[in-house]
Automatic annotation (TrEMBL), chain A:
<keyword id="KW-1133">Transmembrane helix</keyword>
<keyword id="KW-0812">Transmembrane</keyword>
<protein>
    <recommendedName>
        <fullName>ABC transporter permease</fullName>
    </recommendedName>
</protein>
<keyword id="KW-0472">Membrane</keyword>
<feature type="transmembrane region" description="Helical">
    <location>
        <begin position="176"/>
        <end position="203"/>
    </location>
</feature>
<feature type="transmembrane region" description="Helical">
    <location>
        <begin position="228"/>
        <end position="247"/>
    </location>
</feature>
<feature type="transmembrane region" description="Helical">
    <location>
        <begin position="29"/>
        <end position="46"/>
    </location>
</feature>
<feature type="transmembrane region" description="Helical">
    <location>
        <begin position="58"/>
        <end position="79"/>
    </location>
</feature>
<feature type="transmembrane region" description="Helical">
    <location>
        <begin position="141"/>
        <end position="164"/>
    </location>
</feature>
Automatic annotation (TrEMBL), chain B:
<dbReference type="InterPro" id="IPR027417">
    <property type="entry name" value="P-loop_NTPase"/>
</dbReference>
<keyword id="KW-0547">Nucleotide-binding</keyword>
<dbReference type="InterPro" id="IPR003439">
    <property type="entry name" value="ABC_transporter-like_ATP-bd"/>
</dbReference>
<keyword id="KW-0813">Transport</keyword>
<keyword id="KW-0067">ATP-binding</keyword>
<dbReference type="Pfam" id="PF00005">
    <property type="entry name" value="ABC_tran"/>
</dbReference>
<dbReference type="GO" id="GO:0005524">
    <property type="term" value="F:ATP binding"/>
</dbReference>
<comment type="similarity">
    <text>Belongs to the ABC transporter superfamily.</text>
</comment>
<dbReference type="InterPro" id="IPR003593">
    <property type="entry name" value="AAA+_ATPase"/>
</dbReference>
């Protein structure tokens, strides 16, 4: 498929985003950030003296696709209302649910993300681009599953940060956590730029959310991509269970902190 | 039945020093003894800051008493570490909403349906229809009125048939008609489910008269003037209130 058509498709998505009011995804902010990502990627490329094997067109597509996804899957998670609950002695409002806080937040979060029109918009463009690069349905589905598990890891790690932050420091620690996930998820640049190692991807619980699924759009990386997606998926599922167990433990051991 | 025996509670202040010592503050509650029988809500009256909400949190198991004990049905003490206990609690607060601000009322129904296995959707829809809230179901909690929010919370909470009702000033800020509707639904619930018990705190003394069977004042950190509601009028309780707190 012609590159022009791909950019036209992305442009159309932008137009829809611009014309539709949304409380959290302001299209101008989104645009500025993607521009920032593009400039950052170019800067890294310029300093490195090359694109580290990346095609410049891929960097453009990556910049256009990564940040909107990160916005959708991260900001919707530990959103304002959760912070309000943590901070305003209203924790019992959610702690009274029999399933436990972690489950409620996870269901709530997944519900918010996967009913979001921007997410569908993003998935449509993603599927369109992946098919244009010649990928089959299974690879695309696995990559989408990666996004789901990766985003669960983001929310669970976010809850853990809140639980274990000393009282009064949770906001600053949470911001630091988000800065880290910004980098480790690959929202700012392809993680492959700093490491091509499979182990690096598998040990990173957040790589599954952005960097790995977007690697499908990288025309220079052909060999071992399906394997990479599969390994990262398995790795991130292991991370998911680990985070989940830690969160459930913290729910009981740390709850008194929010009531005192 | 809930039995509260000789309960004493004070908040703990944690020193942020290296040793992280804990210092007990002045007791909020001391020597509290009450028995809340099945089929009744205990009315608790007291000025702002007297410890009414703290007592409701003790009943829910949010806090544990420093001394004494609270026992439900002679079997266990309330604790939020016990999921079975959580299923029994129906908490409605006028001041604190339990609704998530970013999901619609309909989505709350889906959430509750999944969280509470006893959630009865047809019963819930019946109540929602009575409250004229059906057109609001697609809206976010932030875009409905305060009265509608309370009515929705009452309907969604009672729809999973909680056995312990904790009503913390449920009629605060409501118009007389809404107050009447809320009293009616709570009384109907109590007569339909005779094994339900709980507590009602309110500054509206008519709530106490019309909903609870016995009441007490929270004065100087303990319960005083415990009395039955039979043949009482709000004016009688108001006179008791003025007599008790007016001299302070």
């Amino acid at each position: 498929m012609e590159t022009g058509k791909i950019y036209k498709g992305i442009g159309l998505t932008f137009k829809i985003m611009k014309d539709t009011p949304s409380g959290y995804m302001h299209w101008k902010v989104l645009f500025y950030y993607m521009l920032l990502i593009l400039i950052t990627d170019c800067f890294i490329w310029y300093n490195a003296g090359s694109l580290n094997g990346y095609d410049w067109k891929f960097l453009v597509v990556y910049s256009l696709m990564s940040y909107p996804l990160w916005i959708i899957i991260s900001l919707k998670g530990l959103g304002k209302e959760q912070i309000d609950l943590f901070e305003s002695s209203k924790w019992h409002a959610v702690d009274l649910f029999p399933s436990g806080v972690t489950n409620v937040f996870l269901i709530h979060y997944l519900g918010k993300v996967y009913k979001d029109k921007w997410f569908y918009c993003w998935v449509t463009v993603y599927v369109f681009l992946s098919v244009s690069h010649g990928y089959g349905l299974i690879t695309i589905l696995l990559a989408l599953l990666c996004i789901m598990i990766g985003s669960c890891n983001l929310i669970l790690a976010g809850i853990l940060t809140r639980y274990y932050s000393p009282k009064g420091y949770s906001n600053i620690l949470s911001s630091m956590f988000y800065s880290l996930t910004w980098i480790f998820s690959g929202a700012v640049f392809p993680l492959g730029m700093i490491s091509n190692s499979f182990l690096f991807y598998i040990l990173n619980p957040f790589g599954a959310s952005i960097s790995v699924p977007l690697s499908v759009l990288d025309p220079t990386m052909v060999e071992g991509r399906d394997q990479l997606i599969l390994y990262v998926l398995v790795g991130s599922i292991v991370w998911f269970f680990l985070f989940f167990k830690l969160c459930r433990g913290a729910e009981n051991s740390q709850r008194e902190k929010f009531y005192s | 039945m809930i039995e509260v025996s000789n309960v004493r509670f004070s908040y703990i202040k944690k020193n942020r020093s290296f040793l992280k010592t804990k210092v007990e503050q002045i007791p909020i509650l001391k020597g509290v003894n009450i028995t809340i029988n099945k089929g009744e809500l205990f009315g608790l009256i007291g000025p702002n800051g007297s410890g009414k909400t703290t007592f409701t949190k003790l009943l829910m198991g949010v806090y544990q008493p420093n001394e004494g004990e609270i026992v439900y049905d002679n079997t266990f003490s309330p604790s939020l570490k016990n999921p079975k206990w959580k299923k029994l609690i129906g908490w409605i607060s006028g001041a604190n909403s339990r609704l998530f601000s970013t999901i619609t009322l309909n989505e709350h129904v889906v959430l509750y349906r999944n969280l509470y296995e006893d959630f009865n959707e047809s019963w819930f829809m019946e109540k929602i229809e009575e409250f004229n809230l059906i057109p609001r179901l697609d809206q976010l909690p932030t875009s409905i009125s305060f009265g509608e929010r309370i009515k929705f919370e009452i309907a969604i909470t009672l729809a999973y048939f909680p056995k312990v009702l904790i009503l913390d000033e449920p009629t605060v800020g409501l118009d007389p008609l809404a107050i009447k509707e809320i009293r009616q639904i709570i009384n109907e619930y109590l007569s339909d489910f005779p094994d339900v018990c709980g507590i009602l705190t309110s500054h509206n003394l008519n709530d106490i008269v019309e909903i609870s069977k016995q009441y007490a004042f929270l004065h100087k950190n303990t319960f005083v003037g415990m009395d039955q509601n039979q043949d009482k009028y709000a004016n009688d309780i108001e006179n008791q209130y003025i007599h008790l707190y007016g001299g302070n």
